[in-house]
Please model this.
Amino acid sequence: MVISARNGLTGKIDSIKLGEVMASIKIAVDEPAIITAIITKESAEDLGLAEGDKVKAIIKSTNIMVEK
Model:
């Protein structure tokens, strides 16, 4: 996938908390640090996210998206 965002941090999913509508995805990145992305539950399920998955946190303006 090609996207316009240029700020991406590769890491591994540390934890996932699914709510009724939203999902909180904690990603351990190389620094070491934790980035929290708030995405829709539907997106988390569509991506098939699971703890331990290697993902990229893509930062654009005030949003953090998750790429798997």
